[in-house]
Design a protein that fits this description.
alpha+beta; about 20% helix; globular; six-stranded antiparallel sheet; about 30% strand
């Protein structure tokens, strides 16, 4: 099955909340931003790629480097799979927002 991109996605940005932007890093790998979450398609030593994430990277995507990403979320087959994972995350964030929940800061210490 082939996924078709909308003209907006092909241009590298989607509208709505959260806005999704795609690009390439200073190191040349595919990157994306969904609200405060940053994603990268990072190569591994054996030639495969995996999804990595970071949070609140304060520079433009073109200046991001591998060291900005610290979470690994599984293997990716190709850039289309990377884009699909990013769009799935954006949809998840939209769904959470639609629930109307509020975040509450707590000073309580918990074991988790």
């Amino acid at each position: 099955m082939t996924m078709l991109e909308s003209p907006i996605e092909a241009a590298g940005t989607t509208t709505g909340f959260p806005e999704v932007a795609f690009g390439h890093s200073a190191d040349g790998f595919a990157v994306a931003r969904v609200a405060d979450t940053a994603f990268a398609m990072l190569p591994s030593r054996d030639g495969r790629h995996y999804l990595a994430s970071g949070w609140r990277i304060g520079r433009p995507m073109e200046q991001w480097v591998r060291a900005d990403f610290y979470c690994q979320s599984g293997e990716l087959a190709n850039e289309a799979a990377f884009r699909a994972q990013v769009m799935e995350n954006a949809e998840h964030q939209r769904e959470k927002r639609a629930l109307g929940r509020r975040e509450i800061r707590s000073t309580a210490s918990t074991p988790w």
